[in-house]
Structure formats: C-alpha cells, structure tokens
Amino acid sequence: MKKLISIILIIMMILGAVACNSTKSNESKEEVKETEKKTDSDTDGEEVKETEKKTDSDTDGEEVERKPFKIGFSVWGTSDSHGRYVSQAASWVEELGGEVIVDVAQGFTIDAQVASIENLIQSGADIVSFCAYSGEAVIPKISELAEKNEVYFVMWDTTVSDPAIQEMVDSNPYFVGTTNEGQFEAGYETVEYLAEQGATDFVIIKYAIGVAICDERVDGASKAIDDLGLNLTYVIEVPEDTKKAVEDTLVNYPEVNAVVAVGGTAMYVTPSIQAIESVGRKGEVLTSGFDFSDTMGAELEAGDLSLVLGGHVVTTHFANLMALSAYWGDPINPDKEQLMIPYLTVTSPEDIDNFNKYVVGDVPPYTPEEMLDSISSDKTFDDFQKIAMEYSIEDVISRRGE
Amino acid sequence: MMVVNMDIKKGRIQSLFQYNKSKIAPLLGLVLLVVFFAITSKGKLLEASSIENIYNQGFPLLITSLAFVYVMATGNLDFSIGANVGFCATIACYVAFFNTKLAFPAALLTGALVGLINSLMYVFLKIPSFIACLCMMFILTAANQTLTGGGSKMVPVELLQNDYSIVRLVLLLIYIIIIVIIFHKTKVGKQLEALGISVEASIQTGVNAKLLFIVSYVVTGVAAGLAGYLMLLRVGAASPTLGSSLTIDSIIALVLGGMSILGGASSSMICAVTGSLITTVLNSGIVLAGMGGDAQQLIKGALFIIVVSISTLRESSSKNF
Amino acid sequence: MKTNILRKESILSGIKRVILTLLLPILLYLVLVLTSFEKFGKFDSFIMTINQSMVNLAIGWSMMFGISVNLFDFSVGSRLVLAGLIGVHFSQKFGLLGLILGCVVSSVLLGSITGLVFSILKVPSIITGFAVLLIFESLGVILSKNMVNAISSEHLVLAKGFNIYILIVLLFIFVYIMYNHTKFGFQIKAIGGNERVATSMGINTAKLKFLTYVLGGFLVGFATILYVSNAGTIQPKDGLGSMSIAFTPIMGVMLGMLIKSCNSVVGVFVGSWSITIIGSVMVAFGWESRLQNVIVGIFLIIVMGFQLNRDKLFKPITTKKNIQTNN
Hints:
The structure holds 3 protein chains of 3 kinds. Chain A is built from 17 helices and 12 strands.
C-alpha cells in the first residue's frame, strides 16, 4: 500500500512536469491575468481619472495607456534596516493603480532567489523587481525566465559588470535597467574620510559572503587603502559575536585605529563600539558603517561613530518607476542604462528623525503626480537621473512645503 | 498538567488506529494544504505552469530527502548534505570548464567521497555521526566559499544555453527507481531499519552494521552530487550558499512525511515524497496566494503548525522526541 | 563505559581532577601566549577570554537540560532575539529592572509556549522548534519595526566589571543545584539514560519535558540579558538566521560533556571557554575568520576521536549510545 501510494505520487509529479515541459501553458495564464485586470480597472476609478488628466496635459498627443500593474518584489529579508526600508519604498508606486507583492526569499541563497522569482511570475506579476545579491551569475537564468513568461524585470542595487551577461540582458526586450549607488566609490570615500580623520590601520567587517554589494564596497575600501598607502590589517567575515571578534582583533593588532563595517551598522558597529570600550581604547579607534540604525544619532554625537552612508531607500522606488514606464510602453530608460542613486550622510539625531518622518514615514516622499511626472514622455533619461540624484532629506521636506 | 495527562490517555486509544493513520495523515496534510492554496490563490496553484514550478523547485529536496531516508532509518542524521550539494555543484562547475561531459561524474564522485569520509569517521573513529557531519558541513562550506572566491561562478555558456529538462527528467527517474527499489525490494531497507531499532540486536542477526552505515552515507553523498549537478544546470551558477537549506529541509520533510527522527520501522520512501511536496507547496503557495511582506514568515509558521498537527503521527509520549 | 571511568576517577585526587578539567583551556591559552607573550601574557587578556565565553556559557547551560532529555530545539536563538527585543523595549521605559524582568518573563513565556506546542501537538521537538522559530523570528521583525533596538549605555552595567561574574556565579549555583541535587535533575538524567525505563519507574516524562522547556526559557532569559548588555543592541533576524546563535554554545556543550573529570555543569563552562579561546587563536594566527568553524570542528573531532578510541575494547556499537545522548 505504502509503495503503491509512493509510486502513484511520483508518477503524478513527473507526469505533471512532462506535461508542462511539452505544452505551452501560457494560454491559461493569460486568461487569468486578463480577468484580473478587468476586475481591477472596474474598481479603480482614480486610475481612469489620472489617465485622462495625463492626456489633457500632454501636448505631444502621444497617449500612454496606464494599465493596472502587479509588481513582484523579491528581497533577502526584512529584518535589517535596508531590507525593511527598500521593501517599504517598493510599495510607494501602489498609488499609481497597482499592486506590489513583497516576497521574502529565504536567506542569501541563489536557489532561493530563482525560486522566489518563479513564484512571483506565477502569481501573475507583470514586472519583477529584485537585487542580484547572490551575484550577477544568477542574472542569465532570471533573464531567461522573464523572457519566456513575457514579464519585465528590473534590478536594484545591482551592477552588471560581466560583458557576456550584459550582452545577454541587453538582447532581452523585457530587461528594463538597473539602479545602484556606486558601491565601490562609497567604500573608497569611507576610507578617504576616515584617513582625513587620522585613520591608518583598518579592520573591515564583511556582513555577508558571496554578496555582490558587500564585495564591491570592500573592493572600493581596499583600493583606497592601497592608494593612500595605508594598511588593511584584518578582515572579519560575518562574525556571530561581533564584540568578541573586534576585541580579539584589537588585542592582536594594537595598531588598528579604524573599524569599517561595510553593512549592517546596527548589527556590527554598535557591538564594535562596545568592544573598543572594553579593551580601553575608547576615542582612539574610529568606526564607520553602512545603512542607517536607530542609535547612530547618539553614537555620532558621542563621537563613537564617525560616518554612516545609507538612506538609499529610493533605489527600489526608481527601479519600479523605470519598469512601469517600460510596461506602459513608454520607457524612460530605452538604452537600459544604470540609474545612479545617491547615498545620504547624516550627522545629527535631527537628520535621522527627519528621515524617519519624511522618507520612511506613513506618507511616501513622492506624490503620485510627481511619480508620473518623472517618467512622463517629455522627460529623458537624463531628466530622470537628475530627479533621482536630487533625492535628499532636505529635498523631500522642501517638496512637502513644510 | 491536566491537558497533558488527558492527551496521553487519548494517545493510547489513538495508538490502536496508528497503523493506518501513519500512512494517511501526512497525505491528508498535503491535500489540505493544496486545497487551501488552490482556494487562496484563486486556482493559480493548480495551473500547469505552477506545477512545473513546484517540480523545478522541489526536485533537489526530493533527491536529498529520498537519500536521507537511508541515513535516518538507522537513527543517524547527515548534517553535511546541504553543504555537500553546494560543494559538488562548485566542483562540477570547475570541471565543466575543462570538459562538460565530465562534470556530472565529477559531482557524483565528489559527493560519494564526502559521504564515505563521513561514514569512516563514524564507523572507525567512533565519532558520533552528528558531530562528524557537522564538522564536515563546516569544512565543505569553507571550501566552497574559497573555491567560488566568495561570489557566484557562472557555468560555461554552452551549459547555460542548452535545455537540460529531458536529461534532468531521465536522471531523476533513474535515480528514483534505483533508490526506491534498493530500499523496498532488497533486504537493505529492512536491515537499515533494524539498525535504527537496535544495533546490537541487528548485529546478532547477522547484519553487517559497519558496511550498512557506510552504504547509507555514501547514498546521501551520491544524492548530494546528483542534486548539486542538477541545481547547477537549473540556476546556471555555483555559489557559496547553493543548496545550504537542503539539510534542514530534508529532515523537516521526512518528519512531516511521518518518519521518526530515530529511524526504525516507520522509515519509508513515501515520507520523503509527501514531505518534500508539503515543503515545496508551502513555499510556493504562499507567494501565489499573495501573502507577502513581513507577515509572510508568520503565516508560513502558522500553516506549518497546522499541517504538522494534521500530518505527523501522534506518537505516544514515550516515543516523543 | 561510565562505570569504568568512574572507577578510574576514584583513584584520582581532587587536585588532579581540577588540573585535568582545566587542562584543555589552559593548553589552548598557552598557544596564545606562545604566539605573542606581550599581547597575551597580560592578566587582562586572560580575563577577556573568560568574559567572552559568558554569553555562550549561559546559552549552553540553558540548552543542557534539553539536550539531556533528547530535545532537539532549534528555536533557542529566535526566543533569545524576541525576549531581547522585549527586554530592550522595557528597559527604555522602566530602566534596569525593566530589562531584567522584560527578558526573563518574556523568555519564560516563550519557553512555555514552545513546551505547550510540543506537548499538545506531540510532534518531535525538532519540528516544534522549527515551527515556533518561524513564528518568533517573524514576530521579532514585526515588533522591531517601530522600536529602537538598542539599550542605553547606563543599562549596560550587567555585562561590565564584577557584575557579570556575580550573575554567572548565581546562575551556576542555580543550574548546579537543579541538575545535581533535585528530584527534577535526577528524573531528567533518568529520561536521558533510558526513556522507557524512566517511564516504567513512574516518571511523568511529558510533564518533565514541558518543565524542561520552561526552565530552559528561564535560563535563556538570563542569557538574553547578558547577550543584550554585552553587544549593546539586539537585532531581529529572519529566514532561519537566528539558528546560528545557538551553534557555538552547542559546540561548547558537546565538548563539555566529553570532559569526564568534572560535573557536566562545570564541563559546559570549560567547553565554552575552550571554544572561545580557539576563536582568539584564529585571529592571533591571522587566519581567515571563515575558517573558525572548520578549526573548531576539526578540534572537536580530534578531541572526540581521542576520547572515544582510548579504550580499544569497545565495539563501534558504543557510538550508538553516544549519538542518542547527544541528540
């Protein structure tokens, strides 16, 4: 009996798979998509109004149909501040008449990322938005998936550097483009800034292994250390107990006077500050981090922390806008260039309060009109890039008129 | 404590029905899960493309958990299987740059070798398998990180461009047929189960315990090699973390499928099939049903408890580990 | 096997036992001193390694009871994180007392919930642990969204100076008495030895296991206080990330239980301390820190291989027993 059931199950599973491999299943999917869209647009009165308004103001006369959309957004987790903020920023575009589904792929593994994209596509997404955190080698597979299922894809916090992969995605009509913050430069600038403060011997804390962004920042920092003739003393990789790791390093290498965490300020810098204090070197060792944390205001004020780069939450927002413009048939980025996103630097607790209130507060920092305007057909990619580069806490406050 | 006592009494009565329940309960859990997601995803779960997804995402777990039955039947666990999958994939990726045809045997061989070392540490050095495999996991993970240079490594373009779905299907079929027949049609399965019940007693009845322990670990090793190679073809890249979740997923799948973590007579291939289907459907269905964001893991945990309570055999408390 | 070692032990004098017990960490520390006398010859450096092992020691003690009754619990890390988040939140409102009560009460609650799920569902502890881990991690992420997850510096005192020793000594006395001199401890060891025999002796195993979860929760509460005070912050984890918190403590417990010259409670201390020193040795040699687990693993295999093969009289069967107690 046991065996019988197991054999039947296996056969069912395999037959199902064979059936799918041989027949194109797109038909049934299209049907579902269409009925969904119908019901969506029925209830969405606002959407129609917006479209009308748009055509009124458009002197070019070129009409852009703003179809309702569903964006599938894949993220590594929402427990760290960056993961949490980018997931939040991804849903700002919902006000343009669509839906964003956030899938938290389990951990940083490459297989989980592919599975996540597959599931999002299957759930009826018109656009998938993700970060190639497991390295760019995953891109060809996802590009193939997107092309096969006729789904647009956009990558945030990602740079394509391999020419073979670049060629592959460029030839894919469903590829929209990438956004990134210049991770290499950020790593470089961090070291430069700390060197100005007198740092000479560096310890770098890596927050992940095999994650492209992390590696790019480390590369940038290492390059700056080389260029300026400084020393990279030790690299700590994904410590379970950061305090212990930093204590050990400081005891072994008493010459160290700067600790750079290339990600996860809250996770790695706060314990590092505790470690510096416990070995009695408070005030002698500089620290810096990436991504905002709750306590950085107090730490900056006390002088325990020198510099934090972060607040680049709009990376997903602009990626989504870019993808939407392509989905609506009027791409803002027809050449599929990389959109640069600025880092924010904060120096006082008020800045962080403002960031929490205006950027990642209850109301999105961009109004639906501003969003639509930034990708309207009279705008070029350069205009769009300019809007992205203008992003800052002050910019958001001034646009709110407060 | 009243509740607990009551439950034990109930458990004794239930034990009369356990024989049949142990087979049907996990299937019931699976069916209920499928029905739940079919409704919440408005039918998307049952579409052909969705079933294809489940097959694509579930086959590595099916491969590893089928082999895991061999180890778990004896009451041991193989904590290194996930890391072994990733390591074999990386080796296969490197070999593929020299010769794409050699990549597959290289993966199988690597996996088998790792399994052999695990079993030798256990059988001859008498190190508890738990520790031996845990250490192997650390070693393989570190080796994999070093080999991939900390980042992901793309397979040769010719491997990327070909469609390997037929090859995969054939390999999978052959593997399943072999592994099921050996376990259920030869005396190996029964002997492994006997080892799970009592090593001393099995040896007295003439079972070659050492050899069987070695066989069980080599089988998981080979499975890791197969899963690693097929996953490499699927994602198109080797990475330091590829397959790392398969260890815990395999254990969970088998227990969900109704197998005791201490092995013994409850061991069966069907456990691996139902268990890995439940795990994969849960991961996939939750997205199809539009349950995303922060609450995703919470919902997953809650559904998991419900499915577990339906599908796991309610053992009497003395066997409750 | 045990009786044999006990007989051998009776010959050893008390001093010899102390030396034997501390041999491992002392030898390991000597390696450190040999690499650089000027850095590690100082008393401060020696004390630092003990301080560093305290958090893992407290977690290790909390897991020791569960491991003794064959409970395989993955959820310890997630419970620690969630209790820590709650404790930190209360410390902002009620100060130090808020931190202590917040951590301990919530941890006992979380432990009891896990125990309840375990006894009501009657599923293996590995599955119970996995299920509640998914939920607790997720609750931690949701809870931490609108919350400051760091603890203000005046409330960090528990991990500083002598306070940490007072806390650890109090914990030690509690754990030692619970494990060695109570009916509870005796019954736990009986279940660990042979569950069927224990049941036939009239021990209510279901009740005992539930109580083990509660007691574990109580001890995790103190481990949480140390964890939070030590790092100054607690961050939520998701996607099974919290599991790794328990990794090093488990290794410490495994190593500790191998040391036969002392009581298990002391053994866990020695084990945790030894593993801490190995971490420091890695940095001292300038080895890549990703290799740390590899070294700890190989070290465990060597120590175990030596321990288990000392007496060639035993057949491989005996390993079977070891596995079961280790589960």
